[in-house]
């Protein structure tokens, strides 16, 4: 038996930490489970098999599982003494395992599901076989260099029309390299995106040639990513460095109020209507050492309102006694029933019933995590506690989430810009970005012309902490807290040991691309780190963001500030199980996102040379992953607000080790300070984009290439615009309107589509820039005729 246990431990220890996303959560303090099992052999029959997740109640049961020769896969986890093991079993094996209280928690794959996967694989193979490698086309998407702090890098993106074939490989050559360098293949959720290369270089090449193993070749000139720093003298008398430590929500509120009092002509504090649920919990204790005999006790009052004063004791008399409950003030005593030998005979469920009947005005008692409570209760005692450790000056009550509204004219007449931070509690740097930005705007207003221009002509909203309850919990109780503090879990997952896993991910709680509508990247499991909540907009914190967008409909731009990783992204932010994303921006809107991003990222770079990598810039699914129900998607799709996502804290290049190193959610403050400084630059860059956008009253110009005239055969028609602009067009001779076709993107990370004209066609179109200026001042809603038109004649 010793040898079996040693093998068992090797099998399981590597996976012990993986059960957070499962039905039960990990807590090393939780009691283990013991069970008395009979040694019943399991006969293996020749019958259909399936892969299931078994729940094994303790080591003895696991020993039986191993001894019986069940076919185990490599996945196993352990929590609270309970093992979850994936296994290949038959129906008769499942019946016999049940004799040891080993039950099926979930069926992972049965034969029907297996056949579906086989069919899916074959369909994929058939699709790939239709791709003709000999007709492959290569398209250069990016050929950039950049200098990031101490090193110069080359970055390439190339897309192959045969990229879906796993055997397609690309290699890059420049300056006559003897050995071409292979590109990496990037795909996500089954979809091929592109091939890429990122590496440090000594000399910047003039151009790069990429060759496919199928024989195709493409060459592109290398240009600088983000461009050169603008010439001219740096600003004089421009004050920065207004934050010097990580700030909890209480400090953030104090700083906001201070700024409101100091600059009443330029700023006001906006109080949002939906109060949080508070930095508070009921006091609890778990009495007992085994799951089936444990009693969970929860105070009816919040911990800070008296629950923390309660104490409970389970005692046993050596003489025969009945089960009794005595309440004296804040002390609850349970006299367990004993037999004539003085042995306890009260079960956990007996104690629970007695407590709920006799002490129900103080506490509620329940079994531990859904166990029946048939085990014998054990004499013990405990003081109830809510487990919260914040200092006394931190309020436990529901909080009013606040925003700073900065502007000389705060009456809705100026374009609005929103920056909001700390949806995720553990992201301590992000509030500093907003506070540093606010201080810069207010303290440089009097003597810096550029700052005055922004404050005079914009309506700026800054929310330092969307999630003050969760942030407080992160600072004082559990620093990895991601969610808010609202517990939506059922009773069986609401004992004290589960407390770190409660809460809702506020950046998954919105109504666009939600997991509740079938989108990927969130969970309906209440203990998951990306729990989306019981329903869309269930949380007051997300309701506050909706309120801001509704109340101040002049907001045109927004920045959702997160950490870490150094990403700069925009919508769409979610896709479904078929990797079908939310509607992508039009080609013109996407062009504006890129152009504005170029300016913002250059501002970030100015501080210490940090470059947000081109591979981490773009629509969310193209550079990261699906994030179903995120707030930026809500603002973009529901409110028509251009919204970006900062992920502050770009990786740092380790020159000695020649690799990128992550900085974490809560880096040493020296690094956190630098991140706050550079991304405050970026946030001000967004304000500059908004200001220039507000000044734009110049209609765009557009043309087609090739232009009107005769052509010997079909042509690929391209639209060219003088600035980022959306093209509305018709090919059937009708007058173009806002209901006409819109020029879209050609594909992931690709430019605008081209139109194939293979017969004589009159193209009619007009362009609209992001500021709403229509080309030639054409009015599509009237009967105007001053749109563009051109006839493309195709010879037959």
Give me the secondary-structure topology.
Elements: H1 2-13, E1 49-56, H2 59-67, E2 71-79, E3 82-90, H3 91-97, E4 103-109, H4 111-129, E5 138-148, E6 151-160, E7 170-173, E8 181-182, E9 184-188, E10 191-200, E11 207-212, E12 217-221, E13 223-224, H5 249-262, E14 267-271, E15 282-287, E16 295-302, E17 311-316, E18 324-328, E19 331-336, H6 348-358, E20 363-367, E21 380-383, E22 402-406, E23 416-421, H7 429-443, H8 449-457, E24 459-463, H9 468-476, H10 540-551, E25 555-565, E26 567-570, H11 587-608, E27 617-619, H12 620-623, H13 631-639, E28 642-650, E29 652-654, E30 659-661, H14 669-695, E31 702-705, E32 709-711, E33 715-721, E34 726-730, E35 741-742, E36 755-757, E37 761-768, E38 788-794
Parallel strand pairs: 5-13, 17-19, 23-24, 23-25, 25-28, 26-27, 32-38
Antiparallel strand pairs: 1-3, 1-4, 2-3, 5-6, 6-10, 7-8, 7-11, 9-10, 11-12, 14-22, 15-16, 16-20, 17-21, 18-19, 22-24, 26-28, 29-30, 31-33, 33-36, 34-35, 34-37, 37-38
Helix pairs in contact: 5-7, 7-14, 11-14
Quick description:
The chain has 796 residues and is α+β, with helices and mostly antiparallel strands.
What keywords describe this structure?
796 residues; alpha+beta; Alpha-Beta Plaits; Immunoglobulin-like; Aminopeptidase; five-stranded mixed beta sheet
């Amino acid at each position: 038996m010793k040898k079996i246990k040693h093998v068992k431990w090797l099998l399981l220890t590597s996976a012990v930490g993986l059960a957070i996303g499962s039905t039960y959560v990990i807590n090393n303090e939780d009691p283990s489970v013991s069970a008395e099992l009979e040694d019943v052999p399991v006969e293996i029959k020749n019958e259909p098999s399936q892969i299931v997740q078994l729940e094994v109640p303790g080591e003895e049961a696991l020993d039986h599982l191993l001894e019986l020769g069940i076919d185990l896969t490599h996945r196993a986890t352990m929590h609270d003494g309970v093992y979850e093991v994936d296994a290949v079993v038959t129906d008769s094996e499942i019946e016999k395992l049940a004799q040891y209280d080993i039950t099926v928690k979930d069926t992972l794959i049965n034969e029907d599901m297996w056949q579906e996967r086989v069919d899916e694989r074959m369909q994929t193979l058939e699709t790939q076989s239709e791709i003709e490698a000999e007709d492959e086309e290569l398209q250069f998407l990016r050929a950039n260099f950049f200098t990031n702090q101490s090193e110069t890098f080359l970055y390439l993106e190339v897309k192959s029309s045969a990229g879906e074939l796993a055997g397609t490989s690309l290699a890059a050559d420049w300056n006559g390299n003897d050995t071409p360098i292979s590109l990496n293949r990037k795909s996500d959720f089954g979809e091929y995106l592109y091939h890429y290369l990122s590496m440090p270089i000594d000399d910047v090449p003039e151009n790069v040639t990429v060759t496919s193993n199928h024989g195709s070749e493409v060459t592109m000139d290398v240009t600088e990513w983000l461009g050169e720093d603008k010439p001219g003298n740096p600003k004089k008398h421009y004050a920065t460095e207004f934050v010097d430590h990580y700030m909890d929500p209480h400090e953030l509120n104090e700083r906001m109020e201070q700024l409101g009092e100091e600059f009443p002509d330029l700023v006001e504090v906006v109080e949002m209507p939906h109060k949080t649920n508070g930095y508070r919990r009921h006091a609890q204790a778990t009495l007992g050492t085994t799951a089936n005999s444990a009693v969970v006790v929860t105070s009816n009052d919040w911990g800070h309102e008296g629950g923390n004063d309660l104490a409970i004791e389970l005692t046993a008399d050596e003489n025969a006694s009945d089960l009794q409950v005595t309440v004296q003030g804040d002390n609850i005593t349970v006299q367990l029933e004993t037999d004539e030998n003085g042995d306890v005979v009260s079960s956990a469920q007996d104690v629970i019933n007695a407590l709920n009947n006799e002490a129900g005005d103080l506490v509620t008692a329940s079994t531990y995590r859904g166990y029946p409570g048939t085990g014998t209760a054990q004499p013990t005692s405990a003081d109830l506690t809510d487990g919260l450790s914040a200092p006394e000056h931190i309020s436990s009550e529901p909080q009013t989430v606040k925003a700073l509204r900065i502007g000389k004219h705060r009456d809705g007449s100026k374009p609005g810009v929103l920056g909001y931070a700390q949806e995720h509690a553990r992201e301590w740097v992000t509030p500093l970005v907003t506070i540093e930005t606010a201080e810069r705007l207010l303290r440089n207003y009097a003597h810096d012309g550029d700052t005055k221009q922004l404050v005079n002509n914009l309506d700026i909203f800054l929310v330092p902490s969307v999630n003050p309850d969760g942030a407080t919990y992160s600072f004082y109780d559990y620093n990895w807290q991601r969610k808010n503090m609202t517990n939506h879990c059922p009773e069986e997952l609401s004992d004290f040991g589960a407390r770190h896993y409660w809460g809702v991910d506020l950046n998954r709680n919105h109504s666009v691309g939600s997991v509740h509508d079938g989108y990927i990247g969130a969970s309906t499991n209440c203990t998951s780190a990306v729990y989306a909540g019981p329903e869309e907009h269930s949380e007051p914190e997300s309701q506050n963001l909706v309120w801001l967008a509704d109340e101040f409909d002049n907001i045109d731009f927004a920045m959702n500030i997160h950490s870490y990783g150094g990403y700069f992204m925009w919508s769409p932010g979610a896709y479904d199980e078929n990797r079908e994303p939310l509607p992508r921006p039009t080609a013109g809107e996407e062009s504006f996102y890129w152009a504005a991003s170029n300016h913002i990222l250059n501002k970030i770079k100015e501080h210490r040379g940090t470059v947000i990598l081109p591979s981490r810039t773009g629509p969310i699914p193209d550079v990261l992953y699906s994030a179903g129900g995120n707030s930026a998607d809500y603002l973009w799709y529901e409110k028509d607000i251009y919204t970006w996502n900062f992920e502050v804290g770009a990786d740092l290049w380790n020159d000695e080790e020649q690799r990128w190193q992550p900085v974490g959610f809560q880096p040493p403050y020296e690094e956190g300070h630098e991140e706050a400084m550079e991304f405050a630059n970026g946030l001000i860059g967004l304000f500059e984009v908004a200001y220039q956008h507000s000044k734009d009253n110049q209609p765009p110009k557009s043309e087609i290439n090739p232009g009107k005239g005769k052509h010997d055969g079909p042509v690929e028609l391209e639209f060219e615009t003088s600035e980022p602009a959306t093209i509305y067009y018709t090919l059937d001779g009708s007058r173009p309107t806002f209901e006409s076709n819109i020029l879209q993107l050609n594909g992931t990370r690709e430019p605008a589509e081209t139109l194939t004209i293979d017969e004589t066609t009159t193209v009619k179109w007009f362009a609209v820039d992001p500021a709403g200026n229509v080309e030639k001042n054409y009015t599509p809603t009237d009967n105007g005729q001053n749109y563009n038109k051109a006839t493309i004649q195709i010879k037959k």
